[in-house]
Amino acid sequence: MRVKVACVGGGPAGLYLSILLKRQDPSHDITVYERNPEGSTYGWGVTYWRGLLDKLHERDPETARAVEEHSVRWNDGVAHVRDLTTRHRGDEGHGIGRHRFLELLAARARELGVRLEFEHGITPENLPDADLIVAGDGVHSALRTAHADHFGTEVRAGRNHYAWLGTTKVFDAFTFAFVETDHGWIWCYGYGFGPDRSTCVIECAPETWSGLGLDGADEAEGLTLLEKLFADVLDGHSLIGRSGADGSAQWLNFRTLTNRTWSRDNLVLIGDAAHSTHYSIGAGTTLALEDAIALAAALREHTDLPQALARYERQRKAELLSVQSAARYSAQWYENLPRYIHLPPQQMFALLGQRHSPLLPYVPPQLYYRLDKAAGQLEALRRLKRWLGPKIARSAHTRALGERK
Known about the structure:
The chain is α/β, with parallel strands linked by helices. It contains 14 helices and 17 strands. The strands form three sheets. Strands 3, 4, 5, 9, 10, 11, 12, 13 and 14 form a nine-stranded mixed beta sheet that branches. It has a six-stranded mixed beta sheet with strand order 6-2-1-7-17-16, with helices on one face. It has a two-stranded antiparallel sheet with strand order 8-15. Strand 11 and strand 12 form a beta hairpin. The longest helix is centred in the last third of the chain and has 31 residues. It is globular, with a radius of gyration of 22 Å.
């Protein structure tokens, strides 16, 4: 059955959904509306893992090949703590420039017959005539905000401050660097996404942010200070910012967004408009694409739109539970950095890799390290850890909900 679809927002979710729907039925009438000019995207690089690439190959090999061809890869993780360094071999990670990624998706969508309308903003007052309107307009979605009570939107701000920067330093591994200052610790994580650029996310506690004077510094002043603090890991390379119109630095507190329901009549949320997960697990783009995959599959399997949207929401909410838990504990690990930072580097880095664990906040760090090391050798301990972790996570989640009421 021919369907008319309007995707609001030219990000990964909307573009990839348009590709999948056109592949399912070339007769579908699909338009992607993006308020900004083509090629004006914000951001530096995005990360993803092999599992996502396998899913892309399964749904649209052409897109997958183009993305893989323009990505960089790494297997190692490196942590610098003061003047100590430790390296760990891990799963293969991938990085691609956000601009290039969107360029590839847009080209594939056009090739399949999708209309792309740039510099065409959509508001709740000028909704296009369509069978389905997909709100992929980000965490600040105007279409969702207009009906926030219906969607049951909740936003929780994190404690730490962070800045999303670029650098001319090309990291050959996923790199962490922790620097101690007179005002507390400040840290960065960097990863390559092209032949001459990397992403560099810098984070610190609010007292460190204000103590260093970053709260009052403009972007140029802030970048100069950060380049000095991270001179060793940057090897003399510069940091690149994205200042506001007044030259102010782009320091933020991460906002975790959830919605009670994801659809209203023929309007459905996708990607960051529906949910956000802390950047420290590097899953934002992957989750947006997985939303698109699930929504396309639901629309293929159900001709009745309410049934399709209900199926999509049930599936994605269930799949997101473990990811959202991991993101929550990852953010808390960094917010409680003093608990781990004075461990021997090998132990600290091992627990950095275990920061998603619901068990870790409740076990003394050195004891957890020893148990985790032993669990790698003893099947009985592995089973205990798998059994105990979710129980503690559910208990902590229930307690957190009670505290918010």
